[in-house]
Recover the amino acids of this structure.
């Protein structure tokens, strides 16, 4: 299931959380797996003992894969990493990244206290949120997240 996506998943986790001097504690990364049947949530404020290198992250991804294969319904897999079986996509989404969306800088009004951005990857989802673009041309999820974080840091003065 995750076999071909492991390196991308490791880079995505890394892009979402790691700074040169630590971890983004104010970030939550939610990843839907197995056609949306599972939700893996990474909570930056609770994430511990996770290192930036891909090999370390692949060990964590292996835990996720084993839990999904065993059909686990709900589990804390690691400090700040949770897995649950879900039948619906019920997250509050502020924006969806799409090719034809408004530029992020135009769409945002100031610096929001909370922001949920959906970046589809190999899933056709229908969400009633406005579309935004992060980059002029489509990029892999990990690159999109890294650029999104850079832009948000600049917009929010961080």
């Amino acid at each position: 299931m995750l076999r071909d996506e492991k390196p991308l998943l490791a880079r995505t986790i890394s892009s979402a959380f790691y700074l040169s001097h630590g971890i983004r504690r104010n970030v939550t990364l939610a990843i839907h797996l197995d056609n949306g049947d599972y939700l893996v949530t990474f909570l930056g404020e609770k994430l511990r003992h996770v290192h930036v290198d891909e090999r370390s992250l692949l060990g964590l991804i292996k835990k996720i894969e084993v839990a999904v294969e065993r059909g686990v319904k709900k589990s804390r897999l690691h400090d700040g990493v949770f897995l649950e079986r879900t039948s619906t996509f019920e997250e509050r989404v502020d924006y969806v990244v799409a090719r034809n969306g408004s530029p992020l800088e135009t769409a945002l009004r100031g610096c929001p206290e909370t922001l949920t951005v959906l970046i589809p990857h190999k899933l056709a989802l229908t969400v009633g949120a406005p579309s935004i673009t992060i980059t002029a041309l489509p990029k892999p999820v990990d690159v999109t997240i890294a650029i999104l974080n850079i832009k948000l840091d600049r917009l929010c003065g961080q």
